[in-house]
Structures are given as structure tokens and as C-alpha cells.
Batch of 2 targets.
Target 1
Amino acid sequence: MAAESGVAAEACVGQVVLPGDLLLLPAHPDEDGERLRLGTGTAPRGRLLCGPGLRRCGAGLLVTKCGLLRHRQAGSGPAAGGVYWVDSQQKRYVPVKGDHVIGIVTAKAGDVFKLDVGGSEQASLSYLAFEGATKRNRPNVQVGDLIYGQFLVANKDMEPEMVCIDSNGRSTGMGIIGQDGFLFKVSLGLIRKLLAPKCEIIQELSQLYPFELVLGMNGRIWVKAKTVQQTLIIVNILEACEYMTAEQRKQALAKLSGN
Amino acid sequence: MKATPLSNCERRFLLRAIEERKRLDGRQCYDYRNVRISFGVDYGCCIVELGKTRVLAQVSCELVPPKANRPTEGILFFNLELSPMAAPGFEPGRQTELLVRVNRLIERCLRNSKCIDTESLCVVAGEKVWQIRLDLHLLNHDGNIVDAASIAGIVALCHFRRPDVSVQGEEVTVYTPEERDPVPLSIHHMPICVSFAFFHQGTYLLVDPSEREERVMDGVLVIAMNKHQEICTIQSSGGIMLVKDQVLRCSKITAVKVAEMTELIQKALENDQKARKEGGKFGFAESIPNQKITAFKMESAAVDTNNLEEQAEEIITKADPPAEVFTNPILHTPGTAQIGEGIENSWGELEESEREEVVEEEDESEAAGFEDQKMETEETSTVEKTKNEPIVLSDSEEEEVVILEPQEPPKRTRTQTSSKQENTSKKTFNKRRRKKRAAY
């Protein structure tokens, strides 16, 4: 393989990177005794987090998805070094451990439910993985129901497994999603935008009508408002948010709230 | 791959919405989605987009010996394929019931209606006839494959040109397109299919069902009709029981829809013909817009965006130069200022085709444009008016006195016009178009 000259990772932040690009991590001067210096041939350890779209490779990071490179300083202290990740546009979901997703129950096979999460494989969910579920007290799950849960196991070699409780046994909002409301699909980038803290879109929408909203990292959103019309409006706005600028959205919402 | 299953809550919601006569994209019960027809460089190649459903049609011809029992007629061959890129549930090489049904419908619609004159395809009786082959590929499945495929099929057949042939005694000469202009097929009429989806045991009916609606429907009725109101094919599937007057009502609706669709097709064919004759650019590279994931652009249900590029070019060349920007507002009283002069209300003159709305809800965008117009009416003016002339205030409803903070809003509107070129947002571009029209 021809030796590729890597580019310094810091120089590429905010620019488009393509799969196959090699990003060299800066070698820190040895001021702080706790910082690890990059040795020749040894992979950097510890302090630097490698986010989605990047993979560690030798002396640097190998880009595996095309998109914009982002970086965030984690702050001072022993865990400094920050995070690098690639912001990419994607609609097809790949299960990742720890992600909270909305799944549709497709089959009940004995003790286990099979869920469709939009990935290549169906995820399995044990009936005991609900809060307060015992062998006698089974959860009431039918085929076609919606479940909000998180991935316990998700890698490319095994079938993904989901649970609806966290490590302490509490549900923290996960479980079967109610009967009404509507489910629709958007791109993964929009979901991440909506999940950001203090998301403007959600704040503006909440001024309109009261509604319930569940966001799954697999691109699925469940919305429920008081009437069908209100639900449809929220669905259409969220789908359109993908393409609208902030001004256009404000105008659209202003018109609606004026109604 | 398996298709994504339909969850119970989606099904319940859709049925409830239909009971309240609401559709997901805001259409009315009898509304069609946007139809866009674009032609390729070759004759007989076209892509039809019905909302997000896309079908590619290609017609080709070949000289073959005729069938034994019909020695003087040409041969027609129709084939529709569901490409795996259309939906996750489609697999190549698997004959699903949907595929068989759609193929049969298209065949009956185009072959049994005798819309193509097969006698004219005969070259030498009993020996050589033209075989016309229509291939349809479904590129994206968002519901109502039958309608999109039938439109694509008939448009491609009308667009197609076969090589010219001359027979002298025993000799048959087939001319290349360079030697003699290719000849169009002889088409008597244009049958178009219209689908009706039924819900709640036939109580509610929707025209042009989208993919979600198709999943919850009880059954579907397809009527193929031409603009002379002759029914070419009628088929009901799904096992619904239909009453006589329901079928009659559907056929009346079909007549209306087919008339509109035929007009659209004629216009599209004419535009393409004109573009080719005048040496303008034609083909998919011109007519299918660039779709970038970073571009802020969205289609809405209420807009006819057929041949938008041509219309846009026309409008831009005919438009007046952009209005002068007045940098100093006239201060009437502290806190109240006016920039430029007001003008006549030209809202009613706006044609449907130019109103490109970004948000799907019609009301939202109308009012969004409304607000924008309100802010910008103050700014537009005819070219040579100066500040010192008496200010003509039109009695348009949109004009209101805009209370401005000194200096700030003028800056905002100014930057909008000056950054026209950089702004990639199509919506603001269209708003500027509207503004230009308002300046007439």
C-alpha cells in the first residue's frame, strides 16, 4: 500500500473529509507529565476520543465516512484531548451500542420479541427486559407495537439486542409507546440536531401546541398531539425542518400560531 | 431485504385521519400529487415523477417477422420492472403479486385499448414488421405505481420516433436518423390510468394513494380512460364490494383527472419538441434538477413544477431589471419611516406555476410569502422615481405602516437584495421573483 501522507487533524476541522483520508494527530509537547506522547508506531491511547466516522489506525485516525470533521475540547483535566468525529448525512441506520431507538415489534418468538429497527438485522428484546417484568407478570406487547429501548449489544458480528431498562433496572422513559400518535422517518442528521440540548426547533414547536415526542436514533420519530390535524402539522414541520432555514421555519410557525 | 412493517399506531392514525378527511401531505381527497415529466436525449425515453414515485420509460424498436396469425400487424411488448432501489421490499428476480398485477394492468391499458395503430407498423406483410418494446422501470416507490407507469408509458410512446422505411418492390430500405428524419408512432388516443383507494369498507375513497395510504387501504379501483371519456380498462382488486354509484362517481372523477393529465402531457411534449427544434438543450441533464443534500429546497403538493427551468428562464429574461434600493428611509415621525414608495397590489396576478412554496402546508407558505411581501413592498419601486415626488400610497390591503428602528431594517432588506447571487436558498430566490413581478 502506498504510504499516504496524512493531514493534521486540527487543520481539517470543519472541512469535508472522505473515506480513506488519514488524519495525523498532533504530537503534544511534553509539558504535562500525564499526557502521553505519540511514539512511533504506537497508537495514541486514552485521552483522545474517536467518534463516529473515524477509526484509529496506526499513527492517526482513518476516516470511514464522508462528511465534515468536527472537534470538541473536552475541557481541562486528565481527560483532556477532546473528541473528533465526522458529521455525515445518512438515512440508513446502523445499530450502535447504547443508542436509544424506536423499534416495531414484528414477531413474538417464545420469550423474545423480534423488533425491526431499520438496520440490516432485526433486534431481539427479551420480555424480562421491561421494568417490573417477571415470569408471571409479562408485558403486554403485541405485534405491530412501538417500543422505545436501547441497544445492549450491537456490533457487526451479532444480532443486536435491545433492553427497555437501564443498568439499575429502571425504565427511564423506555418501554412500550402508547397507542395513538404517528410514527414517521427522517434522516439521522435531523435527529441529532433535534436531540441537541436546547434545540430551537423543539422549543418553537412547543409554543404551538402541546405534544408528546419520542426521537429514535434510527431516524424514527413518534409524535402525538391532541387532534389529528395538530399531529399532522407537527409531522410536516419536522419533516420540512430538514430543508428549511431557521428564518423560514420561524415564519411558518409564526403563521401557524397566528391562526 | 424485508420491507419495514407497518406499526399499529400508524395504521390507526392513518385510518382516523382519513375518517376526518385529512391526508398526510395535506392534499384533498381527490387531489393528485405533482406530476413532472422529463425527457431524455433519445427519443422515447422519459421519466415521470408522481410526487416521489418515479418511473423511467424507454421505447425501442426492431424489425422482426410477424406472428403467424397476424401477418400484417406489428408486435407490441410491454414490460415493467420493480427495481430494488425503489423500495426495500423489492428483490430482483422475484415475481410478486404486485408485479404481476401492475404488468397486466399496463398491458390491458395500452394493448387492448388499441391506442397504437399496429397496422402502420407493418413493413412487408408476412415477413417484416416493427416490434415496439416499452420498458418501464420503477425507480422510487411512493405509492400509485400504476398511474405513474401508465403516464410514463404513453408519454414515451408518443415521444418515440422509429426509423423511416421505404419499400420498393422486394427491397426494403431502413433509413438511419441522419438520412431521413425518424417517424413518430401512429397513436390514436392516450389512455391514462387513475387509481382510487377505498377505506373503511368502501366508505371513504382517495385518489392517488401514497405508499402509506396503500398499506392501509381495503382495496383499489383502477380506471383507464382517455380524454374522449372512453373507458379502456377498469379493474377492482382487493376484494372490496363496490356499489354502482360509487363506480360511476369514480368514472366521473377519472374523466376530469384524465383531461388535466392529457393537457399536461401535451404541453410537456410540445415543450420538448420546441427545445429540440430550436437547438436548445434537452435531455435529463437539463430537465432533472440537481438534488443536493445541502440545498434548502423542498417541493410542496400544490405546485405545478413541470418544466420549471424553461419557465424560470423565460421569466428571468422578460423581467425588469431589479429595483433601485433606497438607502435612506423617509422619517415621518419619530419611530415611523418609509422606504421607497408603495405600489399596486399585484397579488392576484401571480400565476400558480410561479408560486413555489417551500413548506408543505399551503397556508403556511402563503402567509410566509405574505409576510415577506409585506416587508418588501415598501422597498420596491419603479425605476426612476425619486424621493421628493409625492408618495402614492396604494390601497392594497397588505400595506401597513412598518414601525422601523432607525437604520436597522433597511440594512436587512438591503443585504437581502445584494446577496442575491450568493444565496443558495431557492425560497428567497423565488420571493425575489415575486418581488420583481410586483414591480410591473
Target 2
Amino acid sequence: MQDPKSGVKSQTQRLVITTIPHAITGEDIVAWIVNRFKIDATEARAMGTMMVAFGYIYPLQDHKRLILKPDTSLYRFQTPYFWPAQQWPVEDTDYAIYLAKRNIRKKGMLELYEQEQYNSLYKWMNHKWDFIVMQAKEQYRAGKERKKPDRVVFDCQERAYWVVHRPPVRNIWTEYRPYGQFKPRVKSSVSIGAIVKYATTYKEHDPLLHSCLPSNPWLTDDLVLIKHLIKVECWTFSFGELLMDPRGRADFRLFLKKEFSGENLAFWEACEDLKWGAAETMKEKAQQIYKTFLARGAPRWINIDGKTMDITVKGLAHPHCYVLDAAQTHIYMLMKKDSYGRYLKSPVFKETQRKAIAPEPHRFTRRPSLSPIILRQQEEEQKAKLAASGPVDITQLCRFTAPVPHLAVYTGICEAQSTASPGLMTLPNSAACPSPISVAIDSTPASERRFDGNGGPSSSHFPSIAEASVSEEENQTPALKSRMTLSLSRLLRRGCNGPSVFASLSPKCAVVSGGGKVQPLGVEPLAQPQPRRIANFFQIKVDIPPECRIYPIDSEDEEDDSPNAARGGVKEIICPWETVTKKDGAG
Amino acid sequence: MPLCNNKVADDGTSAQPLQEGKALVDSLIKVVACYRHLASCVGGCTDNSSLRRDLQQTRERAQTLALSCRNHLTARLRDKTLAEAERKETELLWVAFSSCLELLHADMCKVFTMVKHFSLANNSAMVQTGIQGGTTEVAARALSLPDLQGAGDGSQTSSMEGQEQSQLEQEIAQVDRTLEDMELKVNVLRWSVEALGPQYADPVSTDSASLALLSIDEEAAQGFCRRSQMFAVMMLCGVAIFAMVLSVCVVFLV
């Protein structure tokens, strides 16, 4: 690059009275890179900027911005001593010496960030400080021995080196801010003051800062809607707190009703709904609000001043979701200044305070909360129960309709089965609670019964899964829907082992709809005593068809001897990640 | 030869060694500073055999100084009869000495690596850094000699370079060992040492010329100059008005 003939054209930098050679312009650099590497200008520019950013070339003007400007701005090569190529550690001692040197040269020349760093270095390198100062002086004096231009060059080199390795903090931000907009800056003392105030006020009340209440949303899923004393105390902190808490808002509403000024809160809530609600109904909502609250002679007329009313009415000509903002703020302030104070002193609030209970701290047990799947099942159960309040269907027959609480999900094991089938390994991590798998499995007796009743498959013998599946495929073409549940049961019945189940499951999933032949992979007669774990694992995630009930463990003894459980092959296996109704062959 | 502040009257044995130690450390610091200046030129366009020679000589000097410094300080710190205040001062010197040695070690390693890449034989590979002058003055300062003897031989053969490199390697290893020894022999708790000097070093001299050159790019504090100028102008005006008033009065009276 330095080649006088084919390299970058070298120029001289002219300072006041001296000239320093070996300066190169940005555009020359870019042109040279384009030529040399046969790339286009933007890429060359990027490459050049990288070189500058790493510190191989440093700019002579505007030295803090390490970019390559493709114009006549000058650059120079950095001396190898300061190259980053060898990856020598950048020592803080050196930095301290450098800063001290600059300070020696001219007092107060350090910039703010440099000043800060200097001070912090002074603090933690205090023991070396005499040395640092002395070394700085000596280096400065030694530098004086050199010729003036060389001194300048050396200073530039060192400065460039430190701009690379200790970049000025603020400048980087201004450089990379895309829109050039400066966010309004808050003094950290102000923001910290706000944090401190929040922490002191909410010390006892914030679920994160304090030990948890029973309904700590950070920790549990269940929502306990008891009015806790602590929560009630929160309402006294600010009006916003009161409104945010739904119980608080309800209480406040009660109070306002007594005072006959409930329309304010209703208006405020309507505005909130307008702001955060669905956008398509926004116009209608706005009109509705106007008719109800703002229009002259409206049923729930709110009292806002004329100016705000004017603005609002004008805005309503072209409504958007924030059109009622001014009025809402006005009403909010009104409530805050007027009603809130009275509320806090009111008998309603006092009653609430009296009734609020002091919560006990949460005693964590190892039981997790109900999983969404179980919850959904329960919902469906409820729905079905309501719907099918007619004759008892055998499918609905369920001796134990109460949902089993505390079901651990995804344990993937069936401890229930292990007792039933001799030779089955006792599965590890059998939780104390019955796994839903077992519970789910226990649902199969019902379906079993059903399908047995329907004259299900004739096979009464349970060969190994491999043989069974082979034989099954050849024999049967069952109807699809019944297949699902049937295969469920089959799946559970089999003393299937892990690998072959996996192997067989995946291809079989593909033919859920087809009902065609599926070759199970890795078919070999496998010993029965294999954990049903995997099967159960798969079982768990399936959306259990609504007819199946969740049974507790007891009904398991109705199941047949499961050791030879592979009664017939399973043609369609419901992949756990598929819902029952999906029929396409997505494996 | 160490720069010693030889007092004419010997005021106690304790002051002398302390001063001696301080002088030793000061000179070591000076030499290391010069070495750094020299090292920054390696690989640049002024890199030539004289620079290398300067480097070598400076290095040797630094090492001899370091050795004598170490002996001196170790002896003092091992001396159990040392007074507390003096022990503190000696510890300060010790910390300064070890940091200095670390700096020297780092510089030597850097020079070693650079010399490997930038061989003198291949002059065109040197980076054009804009440095024009030589560094003989710096070396002279380091060696405390008024001037150096001649330019030495013109070019170095590669064998000489290799020899130099191996020598440099040895020297680096030696400094390494010295540092290790220091840590083992004398137990100075660095964090217990407190600096006595000021946080900000006083300006050595107002070097306005090079300052001006550099500050062309940097924004100088213009406001202050203007303010002072304005003030001067106003003063002048005030004086002029006063003079006019006086003359008018004189004319009037007369």
C-alpha cells in the first residue's frame, strides 16, 4: 500500500509552519482498495473504515471518529508499536501514563470521560501513582528531545491508539444513532431519586422487593383475589395504584355511586377502553361515549370545562383513539384531587381496610400449579357435563369424575403400570403424585370397554408389538375415527419399548389418514419388560378426546395383563404434537 | 553511572541510601521512558541499524540500572532495623521499581515481536509513519551521554540480526526472572502502599509550539481568549476616555 508507484499516493500534511509527510487522503485510500481488490466503492469504504477502526490507519482531522471518509481528509499509517495485530494487552498503567502526560502538557486538556477515567484509575492504582506521574514526566521530557514534527506525529499516534482502545463513550452514541434524534436526557440523580422513592414507598408491597404474598404473580399461576391488607395499603399511595388494581377500582366505584358521581369513573374507563380496545369499533365507541357523557343533556353528563370540551368536540370530527385524551386527563385530575381524598377518608374504604386480611407468607410446596392442559381438560369436562346431562353414555361413565388435583405434567412415566406388569422396570422419577399419564391411561378402560363393546378387533392375544403391527397391517382396515382411540388404547396396552416405539411411531404418524401399511423400523421381537415410558410420554401430549375421562389410579386394575400388551399393532398412532382431529399425515 | 545527589555533609546514614535508592529508580524510569520512545519507532520509516543499536544500548543500561536498584532495595527492605517511615518510603520505591520493570519487560517483548516482522534487510516494508528525524537524542538522554559515538556500521547482516534477536530473547528472560525473584524475595503488599505525590502532575513547561500544532484539529477554548481581549479593549477605551476628559478639563481651565 505504501509502494510509491502502485500504492496510495502520499502527501504532506501542512500544519502551521511544519510539514509532515506521509499523509494520505481518504479518497485515495478508497480508490486504491477498489483497484487492488477489485471491489466496489462501498465495500472498499467499509474495508477502509475497518482498518481505521482497528487502528492501522488513523485520521489526522477529527481524530475521535474512526471512520474512513472518502474525501480529502487526511490519514496516516500507525506505527507498528501501536498496532493491534499482535494483541498485546492494553494496560491501564499505560493509559494512566498517557493521560497524565496530556495533563502535563496542558492542564485541563482532558475531556470529561478521560477525566473520569483518570480519577478512577487514580483510585485503584493508587499505589503506583508516583511511578505513573514520574514516568509521564520522563516520557514527556524524552519526547522533547525529538524534533518538533516527530513529537507531533508521536502524539498523534499515541492519541489515535488510545482512541481505539479507550473509545470516547459519548461520541460512539452520537455516531451510531440512526435518526440523529436526541432523546430527552434525565439526570441520573433525578432518576435515581425516583427509584429510591419507589423502593421506600413500595418496600413492603412490591412482590419483587418483599417476600411474597399468596398471590404473588411472579411465582404462582393461581390468582387469589382476596383483598389483602398490603394491597389495600397500596391504594393509599397514589390514585393510579387505586385505579390499576381491579379490586380497588371496584371499591372506588362503589364509593362514587354513593356520592352520585360515578359517571366520572365510567367515563374514564370508557376512554381507556377506547384507547386500548379494538380498533375497528373505535369510531362507534367514540360516538357512543360522546352521546353518553359529553353531549348536552346526556344521561351521564360529566363536568369538564369549556376549552376542553371544544377541543374534544373538534377532535371527534376525525376520531382516533386518543381523541378523548384531554377530557380523560381532566376527569382523572378531578377525581384525583377531589374524590380520591374523600374516598380515603370514607367509611367504604375504612370498611375495606377492616375486612382486608393480612396474608400469610407463601409456604412453598413442591407441587406445581395446574398445567394448562389439565385445566383445559377440566373445562371440557365441565362443558361436556353440562351438555350431556342426559342419559349416561357408557363413554361418559366415569366413576371418579373429580379431576385429579396436582397432576404433574410431562413426567412421562407411568408408575401405575409398573406394578401391573411384572418385569417392567420401575421407572425412575415417579413422582408422588399420580402422573396424568397414568390417569390418562386409566381412561382407556372406558374406551377399551367401548370398543370392546363395539366389537373391536378380534385379537385377544398380545403378541409383541413388532409382530403385532406386522400382522395388523396386513389384516385390518379399520375406520379412521375409532382408530384413534383404539390406537390410543393399543399404544397403552403394549409393553412397548422405547426405541421401537419411537421408530414405529414416526412413520406411522405419517399414515394417520391413509391407513396404509407402515413398516415399523427396527422391527425385532423385543422383550416385554421395557418401560412404557416413551409411550406414555407420547400419550401425555395428546389431546385426549373428550370422551375419555380422567380416572384415578384405581381403575387400572381393570386393565388386562399388560405384559404381553401388544394386542394388535397400531396402525395410526396419534402423534403427540398433533391434535386428534388432524388427519393429514404430518409426521 | 547513577545520578547521585551527593551531599557534601553526611547527615546521617539513613538519608543517603534513601536518596540513593530514589535516584536509582528515577534514572531507571527515565531510561524506560526513552526506551519506549525508541520502541515506537521500530518498524517505521526511521527504523535502521542505528535505531536498533540505540535500542540495544538503552536496554543494557536499563538492565544494569535495574540490577543495582534491585540489590539496593532488597537489601534495605530486608534490613529489619529499618525505621517505619523509611520502610514506607522504600516500599514506595519498590512498587515504582517493579512497575517500571514490568513496563520495560512489556516494551522489550513488543520490540522482540516487531523486530521479527520488520527485518532491516527489507527496507521497503517499513511503515511510513511520518517520522522524519532520528532518535539519537533520545538515546543520548537515556544513556546520559552528551553524544553518541558515530553512526556505526551502515547495514546489518541478517546473521547479526539473528544474533541480536537471540540476545534480546535472553534479556527478556532475564528480566522475567528478576521480576519473579522480586516477588519472592521481598514481601511488599502493594495495596498497602500509598502514593505521596499529587494526582495531577504539574506542567513541566509550557510548550506552546507543539501545542499549537496539535490543537489545530482540536477545538481550543476560544471563549476565554475573546473575553480577555474584550476586557483589554474596554480597559483601553476607559483609559482613553479618561484621558480625553482630563485634556478637556485642562483646556477648559486654561
